[in-house]
Amino acid sequence: MIDVFVDELDLAGLGFDGVAPEVTGRPSYHPSVLLKLYIYGYLNRVQSSRRLEREAGRNVEVMWLTGRLMPDHKTIADFRKDNGGAIRKVCARFIMLCRLAEASVAIDGSKFKAVNNRDKNFTRAKMERRLAQIEESVARYLSQLDSADRQEPSEARTTKTTRLKEKIAKLKEEVKRLHGLKTRMLATLDQQISLTDPDSSSMATSGWGSGVVGYNVQVAVDTEHHLIITHEVTNVGSDRAQLAHMAKQTKTTLEAASLDVVADRGYFSSEEILECDKAGITVTLPKPMTSNSKRFGKQDFRYVAEDNVYICPAGERLGHSFTTQEHGLVLHRYLTNVCQHCAIKHRCTTGKERRITRWEHEHILEAVQRRLDEHPEKMRQRRETVEHPFGTLKMRMGATHFLMKTLPRVASEMALHVLAYNLTRVMNIIGIQPLMAAIRA
After folding, report:
1. Average pLDDT, whole number, for the chain?
2. Are strands 281-284 and 201-203 parallel, antiparallel or unpaired?
3. Angle between the 362-374 and 377-397 helix axes, to the nearest 10 degrees?
């Protein structure tokens, strides 16, 4: 199946280097050979270039696939490093081959570990904490040195004094190094620095304790077949600004006139939902509940569009007071001044009057909430759809997750993982022979 799939690809059109051999010199390995080797490796959980080199010399399946060619690990690694964009196009090409008719996806993100130890990543708080620890150690060693100087001269005291001075000198060098890193860190946009993989970031997670240094991988998964339609690797820990971009990219990939998207509350953003609505994308996701649960929230107030007023739980009307603009959003304010004599004021507000804010496109958010109320099962469908690929991908990657460094190369590696997942998924659904027939068609 791998052999048929790669042979049907237009490698030159996809952007692979070395499709046409040079006029002079020894011909290089054809990209089809190395692409087949990588797809086989990722399908069989062999992602390392050195392990792929060994497989090419001892695995009969790989020998058949590569025509008994045995590229060295440097050639294998350079192919993945230098053809990242083309590899990502191959991943998208397979989804186009599947010709999915269902235009319904679940979008989610998950944190994947980078090749960067947590001790090699510094945030502002971590840097201050580390400098404070070193200063405390220096003070302790200086106290011990002062105590040793007051003792009777002896060979043991001299040895102890020398060791303490060496430790203090090393710690002062470390302080000097950390201050240099702090200057570089404060100059960055997110005020953090990673020494091994400069593009990786420290991100808060629920499953890794206090966080992980890595990447936030976004995926859009088909709700019917659980295929990954589109994916993107980012080094931004929040999902808040990812919804519209992922949804539009998915719609383009599927070449669909409309698209239904389900996401979790981490994607809730008024601007992102508005962008989706303009693009003909129907979004269903819950709104974060930030109000005090002991008091009435905005969801307890009913809006009457005909009169442009809100009706509070006590039946009073909150009329339009004024319009303002905050953070680029046009907001309408509604209020009432009868709260002082209200019997349930203690459950509503501590101020003299209750105010409600309404965005100019609030009707779009209300439609999102209405869809969620009418179809609450979509949240369960979202979990069942998108958590499955993430679990499978991380299991195949192993404990180390990514092997490459910097965002473009990590994106290439992720594309190979996604391609292998989708290939496995389709083979399990329709079988290998029908898939080969579809590829040849």
Report:
1. 89
2. unpaired
3. 90
Using DSSP's 3-state secondary structure scheme, residue 47 falls into coil
Cα-based distances in Å from 179 to 122, 184, 185, 193: 12, 9, 10, 13
Nearest to residue 200, comparing CAs of 412, 406, 413? 406
Return the structure tokens found at 104: 């319904």
Q: Are 414 and 397 in contact (CB under 8 A)?
A: no
Using the structure block, give the residue that is written with the tokens 């070193």. Answer: 134
Gap between the Cα atoms of 141 and 226, Å rounded: 60
Within the chain, what is the greatest distance between any pair of CA atoms? 95
Query: What average pLDDT does the segment 55-64 reach?
Result: 95
DSSP single-letter state for residue 271: H
CA angle 327-333-335, nearest 5°?
Answer: 150
Does residue 207 have a pLDDT over 60?
A: no
State the pLDDT confidence band at 14, using cuts at 50, 70 and 90: very high
Residue type, 424: T
DSSP codes of every residue in 143-203:
HHHHHHHTSPP-HHHHHHHHHHHHHHHHHHHHHHHHHHHHHHHHTSSSSEEESSSTT-EEE
- 29-to-18, 21, 72, 133, 438 alpha-carbon distances in Å: 8, 9, 11, 53, 28
Residue 98 has what pLDDT? 84
In this prediction, residues 374-400 reach a mean pLDDT of 91
